[in-house]
Amino acid sequence: MNEYSKNKPRKYKERSISVIMPTYNNGAFIRRALASLFAQTIQDWELILINDGSNDYTEDVIEDYRQDSRVRYYRNDQNKGLGNCLNMGIEYANCNYICYLPSDDIYFTDHLSNLYNSLSASQNIILSYSGLYYDNTDNLGSGLSTKKTLGLIPNSSLQLVQVMHRKGSCKWIERNELVTADLDKMYWGQLREEGTFVGTNIISCEWVSHPFQRHKIISTTKGGGLAFYKKYYQVTEQIKFHNVNDTCIDENENAIKFQQAHSSPGKLKILIVGELGFNPERILAFEEDGHQLYGLWISNPEIHNAVGPFPFGNIVDLDINNIQSQIEKIQPDIIYALLNSQAVKLAHYIMVSNPQIPFIWHFKEGPLFCRNYGIWNEMVELFYNADGQIFINKECKDWFSQIIGDVNSQSLILDGDLPPSKWFIKKRSCLLSETDGAIHTLVSGRPYGIKPQDVAILSKYNVHLHLYGEFYHSMWSGWVDQVNQVAKGHLHVHPHCKPENWAKEYSKYDAGWLHCFDSLNNGELMKCSWDDLNYPARMSTLAAAGLPMIQKNNEGHIVATQDLITNLKTGLIFDTFDELGELLNNKSIMDETRKNVFKQRLNFSFDHYFHELIHFFEEVIKNTGKIIVNRDLLKSIIAKYFR
């Protein structure tokens, strides 16, 4: 960390204010933020500007502002996080009043004076806050749309830009303790213990909305998440990460210990391209078998897209900005591209750029998303030109054959998002039903296709639903409220359950829900929807705990999940919810189904198929070159990805 401004010490009046501005790669925003500070009616302030490792043009565009004697400029060589910058700013502040101006936000001219007048009204007041504008959007269809509040934004905490407080002994939570978008957890909660918060009742600033606001980078509901956060801020250490809905991931706690895993002579060098879905820990099986893994990850992961760097294993991550030279240096034996629609563009680019390397395409979901997003062509070309294709089930293979025909390449059937077998422990918990006599069912994820009136019917049979995951409590809050009205006492909500606790936590329930839907295909492949073809990720979760799987009867239709659980005898197939209530209360059927699930559970783990997958890789490598595919014809489209 270096202090760039060498201005002489200044004497500050009682009314003086220290404004702290943390910034990271906000060169396009920062001048407007600075202009709003320089336009304040109060001019007796100092600015502590902390550049938190920016690698954009920030320093160039603020050079003239740094000449002002009120500006003190510091720079961290690497990004250290918001909490570190704010603590640094408070430590260096010369004034008793502290304000914050994130470099993408703006003050209106009377902002500081309004906050000062409110805060200085009484010594009992520790913090004052203004009203603000937020979510300011403008489009051709509806024109300008701006939300406003005189205090808190709904479901949020006070924002930095709207606050002034007295300088005290409190410390901001830093990255090495916790990453969170909740400023109450980071600081305001501590400050409340020292005095009163008051509002100005005047809107005097804007919390500027854009896709790279810190809370959006953190929140999975807004397109962010742990992987995106670490990639954006270039974080390499393991962290404790708190999401917006109280889901907490502690990488140090969750890290799978990896004993002396090294690549072995004669084993494969595998370049994984794309993302790994819900269960990235499965890749440890490759390293445990002696293979060397490299990772090239998508840059726009969503909530269900796991990308590196991972807190486990020895995978070597590649820089997406320097792809080809790295691939040429590595010379991988095979490229393994997967998994969902978000990976299609990157996988396609890598395939057509590296026709000399054996390429396998493993697709989970969803082809219809590809059609909607305008990447249908790339998806089809991946299947058509891959040296090896992996389909999640036979139904999917048959469905894709309508599109790609009988291409001259090898294929394998394997669900793309199976968890490692280490979650499938033998020890199970006692059933809740043995204690209270009621029936308890599990919903791990969305209560997909279950209507509030369905829960009401089941409640007559003393059947309870247990919904896990704060994300779904929030997204389905209306559904939760309705169920609580029509089936009072029969819905129970629980926090997210970590994979290593699936067996212990979920095995206390009598059964678990798959997606509940009515198929309309009447046995015609052409009519199949993705509900008909997909294996939902929760199947493995239920199998790990030995839970019978609840599936609505779609006999006469093509439904992959129903075919699977019928063949394995792991499901409860029902036509009506009254019938389901009776099935769940039939002890002999439940006991027999539970035994079958536990017996078959490893069929739902990745390790069960690992050696078959490696054999498939080896066969593809051996046979590559015999497939007559002119990939050179596709190279002309490469440039469009990076225009």
Descriptive key words:
ten-stranded mixed β-sheet, alpha/beta, seven-stranded parallel β-sheet, disordered N terminus, 643 residues, Rossmann fold, 25 helices, 3 domains, 21% strand, 25 strands, globular, Spore Coat Polysaccharide Biosynthesis Protein SpsA, Chain A
Please provide a written account of the structure.
- This protein is of the alpha/beta class and 643 residues long.
- The protein has three domains: 2-217, Spore Coat Polysaccharide Biosynthesis Protein SpsA, Chain A, CATH 3.90.550.10; 260-420 and 615-642, Rossmann fold (3-Layer(aba) Sandwich), CATH 3.40.50; 424-604, Glycogen Phosphorylase B (Rossmann fold).
- The protein is built from 25 helices and 25 strands.
- Strand 3 (45-52), helix 2 and strand 4 (71-76) form a beta-alpha-beta unit.
- Helix 11 crosses helix 13 (376-385) and helix 16 (452-459) crosses helix 23.
- Mean pLDDT is 89; it is low at 1-9 and 626-643.
Mean pLDDT over all positions: 89
Q: Using DSSP, what is the number of strands?
A: 25
Poorly predicted ranges (pLDDT <50, ≥5 residues)? 1-9, 626-643
The outline comes out as globular
Query: What about the largest sheet?
Result: 10 strands, mixed
CATH topology of the largest domain: Spore Coat Polysaccharide Biosynthesis Protein SpsA, Chain A
- Name the CATH class of the largest domain: Alpha Beta
- The overall number of domains is 3
